[in-house]
Amino acid sequence: MDARDLMRGSVSQTRNHPIGTGPSRREEASPGRPRLGAGSGPGLAAVLLLCAGLLPGAAHAASLPQPPPPCPVAIPAHPPATAQVWRVSDFGAIPDDDLADDEALRRAQTTLRPGDWLVFEPGLYLQAHSVTIDRPGLTLWGPGATLQALDPADHALRLQADGVRLAGLTLRARTDRRRDAPAQSRLVLQGAGQVVQQVRIEGAGAAGILVLGARGFLLSDNRIRATLADGIHVSGGSQQGRIENNQVNDAGDDLIAVVSYDSDPSPVQDILVRANQVAGGRWGRGLAVVGGERITLADNRISDVLRAAGILVAQEGPWRTRGVDQVRIERNRLMRIGRPQDAAQAAGAPTGHAAIEVHRHETPPGAAGIGQLHLEDNRVEDSGVPALRLRDGRLDAGASGARLDCPALSTR
Q1: Strand order of the sheet with strand 131-133?
Q2: What mean pLDDT do residues 208-229 have?
């Protein structure tokens, strides 16, 4: 099959030129409580997060069959009348007081029950270190509220319990350099049936949203910018997820990435990436599937990726990633990918990728490589590289893409 056959029905290339109440409010801050502008080091939360995989029995537990994840439930515009509603100020978190609010968030979790809402009143709240939400079934809701993280090395909001939902907040972080630990991502999902909706993320030392072994998750209508690593990164054997209608801009690496490492308990499976707008990749790729099974990339708009592929499907030996199989890439629009006139703004030399690039790179003998994939009705416009380069895998209209258990999450 030659290049013209690959283009037919799968990729078109054009050019725009002629182609409730609770505990009392907190008392005055103690001298040791961090204030806005105070420096601090990594706390216990970061140590626990990084060492969780070393607990006895962790490897055995990872090998056990997992129950089907619950279907995520979208968050209504306002707390329902039947919900128990609490304010973070009931637990001592006062907006705009220049005092860290970590302990208030921990106190709230000792009182709230599954199904309760925790409301952040408008204003600025401070987060000294990483904070874990480990009470299941809570909804954190905060239109007009900003949670500012202070420590560049320890600033994650970690959603660990099942059924936790987050909506309306702006999450900001101080950053100093690119980092790679979970505690240095701004938001981390690690449970089942979690929802992140209409959240703004501005800055992160690592990923803006890190989905790490989560199941049955929904990321919808979020705005992510100025992260020093990936905008959204899905790995750790995550499965049954939807990433829809998000905007990701100016990420330090890939804008949205699905990655399965050899060391993960299982490959990432059944992920739908649909109707997102991603732009401003000065270093990495627009959308990347580097290891994974049954992934669908559909109806996305990818633009201004300066040195690498707009869409990459790959197995990468140096990063010890798994193979890829059953991928559908449909109705995506790619614009201004790898243009020579933009090279001076890129954070590195051109990679030589096509706008849609499928390959294996320095993989060991016997590596799985790329299996079946289907490409249909993708458009590449005003770009300085070829529309498609297929160096591994086979095109097959029967490639399944994401198979999502919840009927509302169907890809068809």
Answers
A1: 131-133, 157-159, 187-189, 209-212, 232-235, 256-259, 287-290, 311-316, 356-361, 388-390
A2: 97
d(CA 68, CA 58): 20
Residue 17 has pLDDT above 50, yes or no: no
Contact call for residues 325 and 402 (beta carbons, < 8 A): no
Q: What is the pLDDT of residues 302-350, one digit of tens each?
A: 999 999 999 999 999 999 999 999 999 999 999 999 999 998 898 899 9
Q: Are 411 and 298 in contact (CB under 8 A)?
A: yes
Write b or e for each residue in 275-307: b if 16 or more Cβ atoms lie within 10 A of its Cβ, otherwise e: ebbbbbbbbbbbbbbbbbbbbbbbbbbbbbbbb
Decide: 336 and 377 in contact? Cβ < 8 Å: no
- Three-state secondary-structure class, residue 400: coil
**Cα separation of 8 and 85, whole Å?**
55
| pTM reported for the whole predicted model | 0.84
Gap between the Cα atoms of 306 and 347, Å rounded: 8
Q: Tens of pLDDT along 19-74?
A: 233 333 333 333 333 333 333 333 333 322 333 333 334 344 444 455 556 678 88
* 8 Å CB contact between 197 and 218: yes
* Exposure letters 311-344 (e unless 16+ CB within 10 A, then b): bbbbbbeeeebbbbbbbbbbebbbbbbbbeebee
Kindly give, in sequence order, each residue whose CB lies less than 8 Å from that of residue 200, ignoring residues fewer than 6 positions away.
Answer: 169, 170, 171, 222, 223, 224
Strand order of the β-sheet with 277-281 is 11-14, 378-381, 333-337, 301-305, 277-281, 247-249, 223-227, 200-204, 170-173, 145-149, 123-127
Judged against a pLDDT cut of 90, whether residue 300 lies above it is answered with yes
pLDDT of 85-144, one tens digit each?
Answer: 999 999 999 999 999 999 999 999 999 999 999 999 999 999 999 999 999 999 999 999
Residue showing tokens 């890809």:
411
Which amino acid makes up residue 368?
Answer: A
What is the number of residues in the chain?
412
> Is residue 199 within 8 Å of 225, Cβ to Cβ?
no
